[in-house]
């Protein structure tokens, strides 16, 4: 049978209310010795608090919700891990749900989390939601709890946001290829969401800065998943290019697969820079240069803002833009050498 506060109170010879005060570290008129005794009894009986009952008293569930678009994507799963660690360190539980990049799921999961009485919501909208952003924005504006947009944000929505400068990240990646003498640079992009469009803009910006004509045939689209990177790779390898910028790591995995199928190597045959810096530990034979987005910084900034909102410590909305960085390894050949 589950141990209750009444069981502890009976064994300690005090009232249940006294046990509750002691276990919640709240002031009460008992000696330190009795406090220690009550806590030891609770430990010996393997007592765990009933969070549902506690929330009825405190009016707090100590629960946040996180909606991510693709739990199989290493970037999002890593982000979920770091947010959960932040929540747990502050006594909060995190409910993680996956939208599978679908707009209808974003809407349904917002309602699901509200039905679980979460105190706040972290949201990374799915790719389909970019096409239906007017409806999603209306939904968000009616939410009865604080929320924050992560990684993928809507510029026209006034709310709390934490994101990375995607255009700058792509720009410094392609600039690195250009500085190493590459002029025929392919790109595997995804314009299905605003981040992908920003990364494509960064690619174009770097080429224009170096006065390189834009060849639209060297730009192939994908959907941020491995298979699309493989298909795009097979198409790009037919073209006259020396380097490829890939706008996320999952597509980079697919592209590397297509490289190996052609018995080509990186960087001798093709130089490659990816985006996210999440797959490097799992690659064999490729020292992949990549754009790093620090998920720890992202999670810390997002949690701090949402937590302070729920605690009513801040009322102002914050739009926080973090800077990505280029991690240089050995996947880019110097054409000047």
UniProtKB/TrEMBL annotation:
InterPro entries attached to this UniProt entry: HTH_LacI, LacI/GalR-like_sensor, Lambda_DNA-bd_dom_sf, Peripla_BP_I
Keywords: DNA-binding, Repressor, Transcription, Transcription regulation
Organism, as annotated: Virgibacillus pantothenticus
Keyword Nucleus: no
GO molecular function terms attached to this record: DNA-binding transcription factor activity; transcription cis-regulatory region binding
Protein name: LacI family transcriptional regulator
Superkingdom field: Bacteria
Alphabetical list of PANTHER family matching this protein: HTH-TYPE TRANSCRIPTIONAL REPRESSOR PURR-RELATED (PTHR30146:SF148), LACI-RELATED TRANSCRIPTIONAL REPRESSOR (PTHR30146)
Classification via SMART domains: HTH_LACI
Taxonomic path: Bacteria, Bacillati, Bacillota, Bacilli, Bacillales
């Amino acid at each position: 049978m589950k141990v209750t506060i009444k069981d502890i109170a009976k064994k300690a010879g005090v009232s249940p209310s006294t046990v509750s005060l002691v276990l919640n570290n709240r002031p009460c008129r008992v000696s330190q010795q009795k406090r220690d005794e009550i806590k030891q009894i609770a430990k010996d009986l393997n007592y765990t608090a009933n969070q549902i009952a506690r929330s009825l008293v405190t009016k707090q569930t100590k629960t946040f919700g996180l909606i991510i678009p693709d739990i199989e994507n290493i970037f999002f799963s890593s982000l979920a891990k770091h947010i959960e660690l932040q929540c747990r360190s502050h006594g909060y539980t995190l409910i993680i749900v996956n939208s599978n990049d679908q707009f209808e799921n974003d809407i349904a999961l917002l309602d699901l989390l509200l039905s679980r009485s979460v105190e706040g919501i972290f949201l990374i909208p799915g790719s389909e939601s970019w096409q239906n952003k007017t409806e999603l924005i209306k939904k968000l504006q009616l939410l009865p709890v604080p929320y924050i947009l992560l990684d993928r944000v809507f510029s026209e929505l006034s709310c709390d946001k934490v994101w990375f400068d995607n255009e700058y990240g792509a720009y410094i990646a392609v600039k690195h290829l250009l500085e190493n003498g590459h002029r025929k640079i392919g790109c595997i992009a995804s314009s299905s969401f605003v981040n992908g469009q920003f990364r494509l803009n960064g690619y174009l910006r770097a080429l224009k800065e170096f006065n390189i004509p834009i060849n639209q045939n060297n730009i192939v689209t994908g959907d941020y998943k491995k298979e699309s990177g493989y298909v795009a790779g097979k198409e790009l390898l037919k073209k006259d290019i020396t380097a490829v910028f890939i706008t996320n790591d999952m597509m980079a995995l697919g592209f590397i697969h297509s490289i190996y199928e052609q018995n080509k190597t990186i960087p001798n045959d093709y130089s490659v820079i990816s985006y996210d810096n999440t797959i490097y530990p799992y690659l064999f034979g490729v020292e992949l240069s990549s754009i790093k987005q620090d998920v720890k910084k992202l999670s810390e900034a997002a949690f701090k803002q949402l937590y302070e909102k729920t605690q009513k410590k801040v009322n102002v909305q914050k739009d926080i833009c973090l800077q990505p960085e280029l991690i240089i390894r050995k996947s880019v050949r110097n054409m000047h050498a």
